[in-house]
TrEMBL record:
The keyword Iron does not apply. It is found in: Cell outer membrane. It is a multi-pass membrane protein. This is Porin domain-containing protein. Residues 8-300 form the Porin domain. CDD domains: gram_neg_porins (cd00342). Homotrimer. InterPro entries: Gram-neg_bact_OMP (IPR050298), Gram_neg_porin_domain (IPR033900), Porin_dom_sf (IPR023614), Porin_Neis (IPR002299). The keyword Cytoplasm does not apply. Residues 1-21 form the signal peptide. One of its GO terms (biological process) is monoatomic ion transport. Keywords: Cell outer membrane, Ion transport, Membrane, Porin, Signal, Transmembrane, Transmembrane beta strand, Transport. GO terms for molecular function: porin activity.
Length: 338
């Protein structure tokens, strides 16, 4: 009943947008896949909704170069039904000659660095299966604080582009779900500096949770004709671990072959892992595409990661992976963008 009410509210919001294009647009993506997955001990075939979402966004001139901006983005489950209202990038703000300011809930600059160089985002083989850092330490009651989050209660500033350079600063007053707190013990800061010149992209980012768990990242990509190559490196703290990856994509506008390899070097013995992914993607038209992907994780003796958890229709606690096993998956997916 609650989901129906939320969808009805979404329809009411969409109506004026469709009636007056100056107020904004409706956009989204329906991303489904049929997957064969193996956790190292058992295997199954599943249907998965992979970060499918619908949103509303727009801008309105205020005066001079200044404009008001907004976005409201919700996720839905195309496999089992239901959804979550405004859990993705949702904000209101200002944009002008001096940059952009947002208030709301949205992904961090460090997250954007990952997004730019991952060749399998939001599908089997997503790099976050290794680099997110939210794995369980032996004997712990809960997983580590992960990265690549969308943070609640956030203030965000993006500088105007200064030649080839741009900086982003993101502060969350409280990463939890409380609407009022009397301290900022659960705050977070994420920053990045990016450089784009011709076919070259480079970026570095720092993210810190409550001045404790933190990560530093570097990423780069280069386009040479039909080929794109990318590299990624991160060093996390508390606990200390490192992760790195390389990937490439070769093809044109309608078909491409892509592959990537990522490795996690954990501070504690037995908690490392490596993942590789290989896939073919076909964009039949700009709005619709198909893909076929294979990915596998090789865990060290105490690690329990898998290549089919992040940004998909499965929760980590729904998947049981034996320590030291080698989970794998094959996915045939379809993506419709609107």
């Amino acid at each position: 009943m609650m989901v129906k009410l939320r969808m009805a509210a979404a329809g009411l919001l969409a109506a004026p947008l469709l009636a007056d294009a100056s107020l904004g647009e409706v956009y989204g993506r329906l991303h489904m896949s049929a997957d064969y997955t193996s956790n190292g001990a058992r295997s199954a075939v599943n249907v998965s909704s992979n970060a499918s979402h619908v949103g509303f966004r727009g801008s309105q001139p205020i005066g001079g170069s200044l404009e008001g901006i907004y976005q409201l983005e919700s996720e839905f489950a195309g496999d089992v039904g239901g959804g979550e209202w405004a859990v993705r990038d949702t904000y209101v703000g200002l944009r002008g000659a001096l940059g952009e300011v947002r208030l709301g809930r949205f992904g961090t600059p460090a997250r954007r660095v990952w997004e730019t160089v991952d060749f399998f985002p939001e599908q089997v083989g997503d790099a976050r299966n290794l680099i997110r850092g939210d794995y369980m330490l032996p004997g712990a009651d809960a997983p580590l604080q992960g990265f690549d989050e969308r943070l609640n209660n956030s203030v965000y500033y993006r500088t105007p582009r200064l030649g080839s350079w741009q900086a982003d600063i993101h502060y969350s007053t409280h990463t939890g779900e409380e609407r009022y707190v009397d301290d900022n013990d659960r705050d977070a800061v994420s920053t990045s500096i990016s450089y784009r010149y011709g076919n070259l992209y480079m970026a570095t980012a720092h993210e810190n949770y409550s001045r404790d768990r933190h990560v530093n990242r570097f990423a780069g990509a280069y386009d040479a004709g039909p080929m794109r190559v990318a590299v990624f490196y991160q060093k996390a703290g508390d606990p200390d671990d490192r992760a790195w990856g390389v990937g490439t994509r070769y093809g044109g506008a309608t078909a491409a072959l892509k592959m990537q390899y990522y490795q996690l070097d954990a501070a504690e013995a037995g908690l490392g892992a490596a993942m590789w992914a290989l896939g073919v993607a076909w964009d039949l038209v700009p709005q619709f595409g198909l893909y076929l992907t294979y990915a596998q994780v090789r865990n060290d003796s105490r690690q329990t990661l898998a290549p089919f958890i992040q940004a998909r229709g499965v929760e980590p606690d729904e998947v049981s992976v034996e320590p030291g096993s080698n989970p794998r998956a094959v996915a045939l997916g379809a993506v419709y963008r609107f």
